[in-house]
Amino acid sequence: MNFFLQGLTMGIAYDAPIGLANLFVINSALTQSRRKSLLTAIIIIIFDVSLAFACFFGIGAIMKKFEWLQLIILLVGSLIVIYMGINLLRSQTTDISAEATTEMTLFKTISSAFVVIWFNPQAIIDGSMMLGAFQVTLPSYSHPIFIAGVGIASALWFILLSIIVSKFKDKFNAKVLRIINLVCGFIIILYGGKLFWNFITLLLA
């Protein structure tokens, strides 16, 4: 039980800081129907948990070993993230009712969630340092229990985030939602710019 609780608290610490995944879930909850926003949260959870597993078992070490892999992920990831941010800035919101919002296709939701989670090399390396370092301190028999706690923390975090934002989104009018979109868009573009700068730095190193 102790190992499970350690995984649960580590998972919350891993997911709670504001990042692309949280912004993606928040924006979906504000602009999509409750059903679609929950589906988006579940898709994010699947990719987030798969990344946590990969970090726990050492994918960060592989990325550090193969510099070309880092370069590819940094370049492609930065460009796609910037494109997502620009789309948010360009989006026009006149009505935030479930009937008026434009639902994202399932393919677009899955592909965008995949990019948000897996095309952020910094998140992969940071996650590997956090979870990988913890793995070294744990006995091997506790690994499944610990990583299960991390996975459940991810599920609880993103589902609760989606439900809470969806529940209170009616408090926002179209103007407020537009401002939120602009803020999220700018933050996402900054994330993309940081990734691209990391690509340039690594390329010139």
Automatic annotation (TrEMBL):
Membrane-traversing stretches: 6-26, 38-62, 68-86, 106-125, 145-164, 176-197
Transcription regulation is among the record's keywords: no
One CC-aspect GO term: plasma membrane
Molecular function terms, GO-annotated: amino acid transmembrane transporter activity
Keyword field: Cell membrane, Membrane, Transmembrane, Transmembrane helix
Cellular compartment(s): Cell membrane
Protein's membrane topology: Multi-pass membrane protein
Keyword Cell membrane: yes
Predominant location: membrane
PANTHER family from the UniProt entry: ARGININE EXPORTER PROTEIN ARGO (PTHR30086), ARGININE EXPORTER PROTEIN ARGO-RELATED (PTHR30086:SF20)
Protein name per Swiss-Prot or TrEMBL: LysE family transporter
Source species: Companilactobacillus farciminis
